[in-house]
Design a protein that fits this description.
This protein is an alpha/beta fold. It is 43% helix and 13% strand.
């Protein structure tokens, strides 16, 4: 039998907004109302973080086996995100079958065995994996349940005086929240929560010590209102405590934020990314948000950050703790590099010790011991992930952790004596570490979450990474032709792509094309001029600012001069050498500094031409420039070894999609080769005539496309060509006269 609760419809929200639209909701069935409620809650990071929390509804439906009405538990599927979840993202289980699993439950030592039984309860064979939290919804006697991780709620749950403060909150705001000590989520906790609710008639929520908040309602709308009201009021409660303490946070400011921190962050990012990526590459995200700076610059930042996070959803993303790098206000980048090196050694040592202390025979193998979050006083926070989105989300999670620590410390009222309320009778009180009223999850419990077999299974369900995942490719000349195809193919293979071109509008369009296929966060566009070292340096800095470093540099930008009667003017000759030769040297020397800073193997791929070895009349400037570039590839391969591989492709003339062939150039080339055409022909017809002529003079008789060149370029830039450097691959359809010699 369902229990019912009510909440006043007159409660005033101070921080959150009631976004429930009665007109929208009126046309939705129960399952869609759950989706709607979930999306509203997940849209606000103050309410819950990305892929965090859980929502559920118990819905009446027709059993396809016998036509009878049955109760179906709809609950967010494992790994789903409330903000973006669709109807298809929910697991559905026969409610009665699920609760009957209690009969076969053998106790906490067999907790994980129960998860294997959840698919047997699936309604209509729904394949969506049920979350670990499912029992905490299924066993509660309420029709609609929300389990969220709001910063204010976790702050209360992670306070050493949290239970006493919860009781004070109940009195002030007229609630009947109940407190439960820390317990790892799962079947046993679901049973314990059912018992707690039964023992406290009329309760309207549960605070899980060190974890989060449960709220409920008889309808989807009532549940939503209850959830946002309680969260908002806890925020008001904590704010009042903060006002009483004044403006000081975390013991006050230890040092100010550096005025040039953004420039310093770009300067240190490749070095930091390279050291963090010693086992596998990561993409970086940088934040100097006001709340981050207030924390990292504070007196208590080092102690609080070492204590680690509290909520399980936080440290699964952020690891048990961040790396805090000391950096005094009077020190420079050279000293910061030394601090990073030393701090990383110690961090990895501590992480391996943590793993060895708690690992069991059947524990998953130790993962990368590098930090996911790096805090630097005066500078801010770097967060790392396999892609830009994950790196940003990791940073958001630690920002949530910062807010939790702030809230917990604001609730402090003297030292708490005795055992903290997060500690259950079965646990060791000494395992809970407290600093300034903030209680961190015990290291053993953190390990049991981080290396939980069920969490490992969730990781294994993720799609395999692509060939160029975790890599950043900067494509100069990316607005058209070969460069555009390189950008598209690199993105399809998992790379983060910077599209750079003198044609800034064209680069923007290509980047937008990529963003429609991959995450928009994984690509940026920049206007640049490869003839200028300053412009190149600015472009590379922007790439570093976006992603933390660079792994691949490709240049396809080139010019093909033409003059009257085959004579190239002096300025055109000089510009050809500047764009086709010198620019590549500038690009290589500038990116080489970043590669050297990262100490990760880098790749450079340039675009030469068969003209480099085929002399002809009328194209001397272009031919000479490409011959010089071909030899430069060999020179750079020698000088930049072993950390950087330098290669090139030697394509046939690419007609279609190339910016090098405007209509006048097409007409001049057709005339040069005595290819008949009419003035009425469109540009595309002229292009096909010229491309067909070139193809007919190759061994394969095939028209070479920009995509063919992109394939070769990205082969050279990929790990598959790890032993190839100083090499030039022809992509010309087969021109015997261009065979390299």
């Amino acid at each position: 039998m369902m229990m019912t609760t009510s909440i006043s419809g007159t409660a005033t929200l101070k921080f959150l907004e009631n976004r429930w639209d009665l007109n929208v909701a009126a046309g939705l069935d129960e399952a869609e109302l759950l989706r709607y409620r979930s999306n509203l809650l997940g849209a606000d990071l103050r309410i819950t973080n990305f892929a965090g929390g859980n929502t559920s509804a118990k819905v009446s439906d027709t059993d396809p086996l016998n036509g009878e009405q049955v109760e179906v538990l709809w609950v967010k599927g494992s790994g789903g995100d409330l903000g973006s979840i669709k109807r298809t993202g929910f697991a559905t289980l026969y409610q009665q079958k699920f609760v009957s699993l209690e009969r076969v439950y053998k106790g906490a030592d067999h907790e994980d065995d129960m998860v294997a039984l959840y698919p047997l309860c699936a309604f209509r064979g729904n394949p969506v994996a049920a979350s670990i939290d499912t029992p905490m919804h299924g066993f509660l006697p309420f029709k609609h349940v929300d389990h969220l991780h709001p910063d204010w709620g976790i702050a209360l749950a992670a306070a050493a005086n949290g239970k006493a403060k919860m009781e004070q909150f109940n009195l002030e705001f007229g609630h009947k929240l109940i407190w439960m000590p820390w317990q790892r989520p799962g079947f046993d906790q679901g049973l314990a929560m059912r018992a707690a609710v039964a023992a406290n008639p009329g309760c309207d929520g549960i605070v899980l010590g060190g974890h989060g908040l449960f709220t409920w309602g008889e309808t989807a709308h009532a549940c939503y209102l209850s959830t946002i009201t309680i969260i908002d009021q806890i925020g008001q409660f904590i704010e009042r405590h903060g006002e009483a303490k004044g403006a000081v946070r975390y013991g006050g400011e230890a040092q100010p934020a550096r005025a040039d921190r953004k420039e310093l962050a770009v300067e240190i990012a490749p070095f930091l990314r390279g050291r963090v990526s010693s086992q596998k590459r990561y993409i970086a995200n940088y934040s100097d948000a006001a709340d981050v700076l207030q924390f990292v610059n504070s007196v208590h930042a080092k102690d609080l950050s070492f204590l680690g996070t509290s909520c399980p959803d936080h440290f699964i993303r952020t690891k048990i703790r961040p790396l805090f790098v000391p950096w005094a206000p009077y020190e420079g980048i050279a000293e910061l590099r030394q601090h990073i090196e030393r701090s990383l050694v110690e961090y990895r040592k501590q992480y391996r010790t943590y793993y060895r202390a708690f690992a069991l025979d059947d524990s998953p193998a130790i993962r990368d011991a590098s930090p996911a979050v790096v805090l630097i006083p005066g500078l801010g926070m770097f967060s790392f992930g396999k892609n830009k989105t994950e790196a940003r989300i990791v940073g958001e999670f630690y920002s949530n952790a910062i807010h939790v620590m702030e809230g917990a410390t604001l609730l402090a009222e003297g030292d708490v004596k005795g055992t903290v309320p997060q500690c259950s009778p079965e646990m060791d009180p000494e395992s809970f570490k407290v600093f300034s009223n903030y209680v961190a999850l015990p290291a053993r419990e953190a390990f049991r979450i981080e290396y939980w077999a069920l969490e490992e299974a969730k990781l294994r369900r993720q799609p395999a990474e692509k060939q160029l995942s975790r890599r950043v490719a900067v494509v100069f000349g990316g607005a058209s032709g070969i460069g555009r195809e390189v950008a598209r193919l690199a993105a399809a293979r998992g790379a983060h792509v910077v599209v750079a071109d003198l044609n800034g509008e064209g680069a923007r369009r290509v980047s937008e094309e990529l963003g429609a296929v991959i995450s928009p966060e994984s690509t940026i566009s920049l206007t640049t001029d490869t003839r200028s070292r300053e412009a190149i340096a600015a472009t590379l800095r922007a790439a570093v600012a976006a992603f933390g470093g660079i792994d691949i540099l490709v240049n396809t930008a080139a010019v093909y001069p033409s003059g009257n009667d085959g004579v190239v003017p002096d300025d055109a000759w000089a510009n050809t050498l500047s764009v086709n030769v010198t620019a590549n040297y500038l690009l290589a020397t500038e990116v080489a500094r970043i590669f050297a800073d990262q100490k990760l193997h880098g790749n450079i791929v340039f675009t030469s031409s068969g003209n480099a070895v085929i002399p002809s009349t009328g194209s001397e400037a272009y031919d000479v420039s490409k011959a010089a570039l071909s030899h430069m590839v060999r020179e750079l391969a020698v000088s930049l070894a072993p950390n950087v591989r330098v290669n090139a492709v030697s394509p046939a003339t690419i007609i279609r999609g190339s910016a090098m062939f405007p209509r006048d150039q097409l007409r001049a080339s057709l005339t040069r080769f005595n290819i008949p055409f009419q003035d009425s022909f469109s540009d595309e017809e002229l292009r096909i005539r010229l491309a067909t002529f070139i193809a007919e003079h190759t061994l394969t008789q095939k028209m070479v496309e920009a995509a063919d060149c992109a394939e070769a370029i990205l082969y050279l830039a990929s790990p598959r060509a790890r032993c190839t450097t100083g090499h030039i691959i022809p992509v010309d359809g087969g021109r015997a006269e261009a065979f390299l010699r």
